[in-house]
Design brief:
By secondary structure, this protein is α+β, with helices and mostly antiparallel strands. It folds into three domains: about 150 residues, Beta-Lactamase (2-Layer Sandwich); about 100 residues, Orthogonal Bundle (Helix Hairpins); about 150 residues, Heat Shock Protein 90, CATH 3.30.565.10. It contains eight helices and twelve strands. The strands form three sheets. Strands 4-3-7-6-5 form a five-stranded antiparallel beta sheet. A five-stranded mixed beta sheet has the order 8-9-10-12-11. It has a two-stranded antiparallel sheet with strand order 1-2. Strand 9 and strand 10 form a beta hairpin. Helix 1 packs antiparallel against helix 2, helix 5 crosses helix 6 and helix 6 runs antiparallel to helix 8. The longest helix is centred in the middle third of the chain and has 52 residues. It is rod-shaped and about 165 Å long. The two termini are about 35 Å apart. It is an enzyme of class 2 (transferase). It is found in: Membrane. One of its GO terms (molecular function) is phosphorelay sensor kinase activity.
């Protein structure tokens, strides 16, 4: 699961939990508010009950009952009751029941609120007050209570929640959408980070730069430091390889001089052996120099195959293997591959030398574009190579015959692979067709500066 989806899911869950808790809290607040309103209404009704009391021949009587008709309807939902010295007077709405007030001690004028079972098996909200009657009513203490059916309060709470639920749902959706937008904006630098790293890998950028949010700047700085360390190590390795190669050149020149001396003295066979060995060593040294240079030039590499091919053919025409061959070069000028001139010359030169050595009369160079790659082909009309030997020939020091050092095709394959391409071998009927599949050079007009 992506980081954005995980954060969005966690945010959505948190929002739904928060909305649920908010709904419960609002329901409790509304219920408390409705209860306070009901108690305030019953307090007025209780005042009306107490104001209508008179002392008659039968004792206390309610001569002016509250005006609400529910007090007079059996189980009407509003009830009043007065207790005095063991006698109880109650509203007609109580019918054949009484309010079972709890044993309670109230001060004069004190008010208590109770939830009690009522008539018709319905819960009641009851307001109870203890008062001392004035002298005109005979004095003494009475307990007066007014109750109302709690189902009205419960129904009001249910209606409130039904009205509130759609708005809470809309609010939750709006918060989720806002959270998603926030994630999109907040995580956008991570996508840019990935794009910049891809640009580093492909050579379209050389450094991460410092145009990053504060949270990502340490990452970009560490990557730049790592790149700088890598470049420094590459430069040191290149210098060491160059020093080693240059150090070997003098002994190789000495070997060639010794071979020339032996040849002058008539030891031609021994001289030829030394020369072959020295040439093989020289070629290996030169190759390592090219590899060392290519590591430093990898990001800026760009070469025109047509120009390189023309130079190579001009040289090979003056060699014993190539002077009698028909060289056909059809590579369009202006094409570019992501290789240095020296690397491309090394790879194409290995293929052209191999073709010149085995061709009977013709070598053809061609190129075609294949998406992001350029296919450079060298075809000769020689005997070709059996399919079973092709893979082995691209390994070092493996030869199809006794000529050469066995390095040519392996070097061409290594150069192609280092550039992100490959070397393909196929019989051309007649002959061999060797193809370098190389990445095309990218436009470097928008490179990121160091």
């Amino acid at each position: 699961m992506s980081l954005r989806l995980r954060l969005a899911l966690a945010g959505a869950i948190a929002i739904f939990v928060a909305m649920g808790l908010a709904a419960l809290g609002l329901a409790q607040l509304f219920a408390a508010h409705v209860e306070r309103r009901a108690v305030a209404e019953m307090s007025v009704q209780l005042d009306q009950v107490l104001a209508g009391l008179e002392r008659g021949p039968q004792g206390l009587e309610l001569t002016r009952p509250p005006a609400d008709p529910r007090f007079t309807q059996p189980y009407g939902g509003l009830y009043w009751q007065i207790e005095e010295a063991g006698s109880i007077q109650r509203s007609r709405s109580l019918w054949d029941t009484v309010l079972d007030l709890p044993v309670d001690t109230l001060g004069d004028g004190a008010v208590h609120v109770h939830w009690l079972p009522g008539p018709d098996d319905k819960d009641l909200l009851v307001l109870e007050r203890s008062i001392t009657l004035p002298a005109r009513l005979g004095g003494g203490a009475v307990r007066a209570a007014v109750g109302m059916t709690a189902s009205e309060l419960i129904e009001a709470r249910r209606d409130f929640m039904a009205d509130l639920a759609p708005y809470l749902g809309l609010l939750a959706m709006a918060l989720i959408a806002a959270g998603w937008a926030q994630l999109t904006v907040g995580l956008r630098p991570l996508r840019a980070l990935g794009a910049r790293i891809a640009a580093l890998r492909t050579g379209r950028a050389t450094r991460m730069g410092d145009d990053w949010p504060v949270e990502l700047r340490p990452v970009a700085t560490e990557i730049d430091d790592l790149l700088a360390a890598r470049d420094a190590e590459t430069e040191r390795a290149r210098a060491r390889a160059a020093d080693l190669a240059h150090g070997l050149k003098t002994p190789l020149q000495a070997l060639m001089g010794e071979a020339a001396r032996l040849r002058r003295e008539g030891a031609a066979e021994q001289a030829e052996g030394i020369e072959d060995t020295a040439r093989a060593m020289r070629r290996t040294v030169d190759r390592e120099l090219v590899r060392a240079r290519s590591a430093a030039r990898a990001l800026d590499a760009r070469a025109d195959p047509a120009l390189v091919a023309d130079r190579l053919i001009a040289v090979l025409r003056r060699t014993p293997d190539g002077e009698d061959l028909d060289w056909r070069q059809s590579i369009s000028p202006g094409l570019a591959v992501a290789l240095d001139d020296a690397d491309l010359a090394e790879a194409m030169g290995a293929l052209l030398e191999n073709a010149a050595r085995h061709a009977r009369g013709r070598v053809v160079l061609s190129a075609r574009e294949d998406g992001a790659r350029l296919l450079l082909s060298v075809a000769d009309d020689g005997p070709g190579i059996p399919e079973t030997k092709r893979e082995a020939l691209m390994r070092r020091h493996v030869r199809a015959d006794e000529a050469g050092t066995g390095l040519g095709l392996s070097i061409a394959s290594e150069i192609a692979q280092a550039a992100g391409g490959m070397l393909l071998l196929d019989n051309a009927e007649p002959g061999l067709k060797a193809t370098l599949a190389l990445p095309r050079a990218r436009d470097t007009g928008h490179r990121v500066a160091d």
